[in-house]
Amino acid sequence: MLQSNRLILLILICASLIGVYLLVQPTQPETNSPTILRVGVGPDQSSTELRSRYSPLIDFIATESHREVELVIASSYGELVELFASGEIDLARFGAFGFITAHQLSDAEPLVMRDIDTRFTSWFLVKKNSSAEKISDLAGLRFSFGNRRSTSGHLMPRYFLDKIHQITPEKYFSSVRYSGPHDQTIYDLINNKVDLVAVNPIIVRKMIEDGRIPKNNLRLIWETPPYTDYVWAVQNTLNETLKTQLRDVFLSLDPVDGEHETILDNLSSSGFLPAGIDQFKLLMKISSTMNLVEDKTQ
User: Fold this and answer.
1) Hey, which bits of the chain come out as E strands?
2) Cβ neighbours of 85 (radius 10 Å)
3) pLDDT band at 31 (very low <50, low <70, confident <90, very high)
4) Domains 36-119+228-287 and 123-223 are alike in CATH topology
5) 115 neighbors 168 (Cβ within 8 angstroms)
6) Residue 83: how many other CB atoms lie within 10 Å
7) For the chain, which has fewer Cβ within 10 Å, the N-terminal or C-terminal residue?
8) CB atoms within 10 A of CB 274
């Protein structure tokens, strides 16, 4: 009887010690390796253009990773962050400020960037027949940003207008619009709805190349200084082997390889580089001074 009581006591002590041990251990995030990889992108162009643009990449990732891959086009930049935070997207292409928000909310991990994303810029455009030669010539006229949460279409252009020109758009121009996708911003300028726009230069070049807009209908009036922009990021809970595999898929894209040429051309890239959180430190500092409240309509 005495031995039985001692055995019970010993079992209780061991169970208590195991419980204490588990309590003091740091919580480790669960890792997963989904059979269907969900890839999210933001609405920087129309859905038709986005599906055409990303389909070759999606097929390539599916082939190289040996799994089904699904493209998810968010209805807004805010929704893209929300879908990522809720775990409904595994891999996402964020603008810099979208990534910063996703990193703060759900510890999004930067994976890769295009070479051009390390020194991205925004363009301020007018129509070719405009008499304006510089930003100061457009005081009191109509101006349009793109999406409120777009890094290249709003946040960095606004930052540099203030930093370099000491301009607050709402006080300087007669009206300030938010057009949404970059292609719509350009159409608004062409259709005389505004006199000046801030846009992503890569999309402008693409629209000229594919004939959506006339080659000589627009004029660059100012280009911002360079900044870090788009990045592909993954869930921090994703299996480490899969993270490495996905990084290698992007890094393997070679412009001299005929099969890769279309993919890279669609992405306006000559190749990808590994991305790290240190590349976003300046923008994190800038974001802390700006109002990044979600706009559900864009």
Assistant:
1) 36-41, 68-73, 91-94, 109-114, 123-127, 142-145, 175-178, 196-199, 218-223, 231-234, 272-274
2) 17
3) low
4) yes
5) no
6) 18
7) N
8) 11
| Predicted local confidence at residue 7, as pLDDT | 47
* β-pair partners for 113: 273
Answer whether 57's CB lies under 8 Å from 267's CB: yes
**Looking at residue 78, what DSSP letter applies?**
H
Domain boundaries, the chain: 36-119+228-287, 123-223
Higher-confidence position of 14 and 95: 95
Q: Report residue 269 as tokens.
A: 């890239």
Residue 169 above 90 pLDDT? yes
Average pLDDT over residues 194-201: 97
Query: What dotted CATH number matches 123-223?
Result: 3.40.190.10
Q: Do the strands 175-178 and 142-145 form a parallel or antiparallel pair, or are they unpaired?
A: parallel
Q: Render pLDDT for 240-256 as a digit per residue (tens, 0 to 9).
A: 999 999 999 999 999 99
Q: Which residue has the tokens 């006339």?
A: 214
Using alpha carbons only, how large is the chain's radius of gyration in Å? 24
For 81-118, what is each residue's pLDDT tens digit?
Answer: 999 999 999 999 999 999 999 999 999 999 999 999 99
Residues 223 and 298: their CA atoms lie apart, in Å, by 24
Nearest to 214 by CA among 181, 194, 188, 190: 190
- Assess contact for 135 and 167: CB atoms under 8 A: yes
* Averaged pLDDT of the chain: 88
